Amino acid sequence: MSPGHLIPMVDLAKLLAQHGVIVSIISTPLNTIRFKSGIDSSIKSGLQIRVHELKFPAVQVGLPEGCENMDSLPSRDSIRDFFLAASMLQKPFEELFSDLKPSPCCIISGKNMAWTVDSARKFRVPRIFFDGMGCFSATCTQKLQSSKVHENVSKFESFVVPGLPHRIELTKAQLPENLNPGSPDLVDVRNKMVAAESISDGIIVNTFEELELEYVKEFKKIKSGKVWCIGPVSACNKSESEKAARGKNVSLEQNQCIKWLDLQEPNSVVYASLGSICGLTCSQLVELGLGLEASNRPFLWVLRGGEKSKKFEERIQGRGFLIKGWSPQILVLSHPSVGAFLTHCGWNSTLEGCCSGLPIITCPLFAEQFINEKLITQVLGTGVSVGMEEKSGLVMKREGVKNAIETIFDEGVEGEDRRRKAKEIAKMAKRALEEGGSSYINIETLIHDIMQQSLSSVEASS
Ligand code: UDP
Q1: Is the pTM of the predicted complex or chain greater than 0.85?
Q2: Does the C-beta of 3 come closer than 6 Å to ligand 1?
Q3: Which residues form the Glycosyltransferase N-terminal domain (predicted)?
Q4: Ligand 1 lined by 277 (C-beta under 6 Å)
Q5: What is the pLDDT of residues 30-41, one digit of tens each?
């Protein structure tokens, strides 16, 4: 129930349906509105996707009416209430589930719905966990959890993550909250999620094996083999209209941004987007904006909820385009005018950047984004970091943004090398989902494994 989870899960539903199974998506009314137009054409074309709604008890827990997604919370302090409301969906979910025909043989659930483990046990079906992270960050996280090396260092002192094929250095300040709890308020909620993950019947990961091969192997070892890499899920959106409708409905502004891109030179534009829930402070937004401006490159910047500055808009007119609402991200990334992607390194954006064949400018903000940055800049070699300054507490500086943009467009050997690697990765991503590709085979295996588990549980109960 946040865009970064909802969007790939809807893509996953489409992918599974494309492999011939019946998929029921269970969501809440306002979340359904966000993705319905994106799947309508799939349903019309014959894919067996059914959508069911449960009323979200927002008001019952003290949230404003209509608050059904993390991106509409009045403040961070309401997260606990949000999780409480989500846990109240268990009973209506089970009532709905028992009426579904044909009776489902599996529950696939995101991490925020820990209670689906209990529901799955009640209905004697496997509960598969859909992980929002890649295998690289999941492996790093696990290595830190078991070694605890990060617990003996100060906030900005760097340490090496042990037991990895690459030398990955991080600081405590860069770690996600589950490894570095800033506030104790959500510890119990987080513990429930971790417990649910560890007893789930397998994990679906939105990645493809060729992208992070050594880490997929490592993660499979950690999870005793029950890992299916079936991505990149965004590739199930093939037509322009499907790409445009992904995540939210198409708006006028979206059409205008594509028209603006059409007017730009090939490979010239920096596309800058920091995800669906922008955590930047006002002063950080200013640094990013001034860095983009100083780069002297055309840029398309998704500035959701940012302060408006008339002067800035006047200065960048013609050279910069601001999207103040929702960007049709995968459509933009596939546009020939875009030459680089400046991202906060959320896992979906990281993967979408990899699939687009673009070099990446990394600007991580929170969660496992600093770990994803290491994957891009050190393991894949397709990106450059804006370099968040640690002295003043991980802040972005306009010079850092400008320098990273200059480096990424550099026409020397290193720049060429990054662009070549990025293009190769995009080709591998495309191949992974084609018939016979690694993700294609893994989806077939997943469906087969679920059927096997389902048959054995029917036999056990008869
Ligand atoms: N997204 C989009 N338009 C926007 C912002 C985000 O389509 O204006 C999509 C993006 O393509 C990705 C998801 O929203 O699929 C964001 O997920 P990610 O993991 O990158 O970051 P989060 O928002 O969870 O921090």
Answers
A1: yes
A2: yes
A3: 4-233
A4: yes
A5: 999 999 988 999
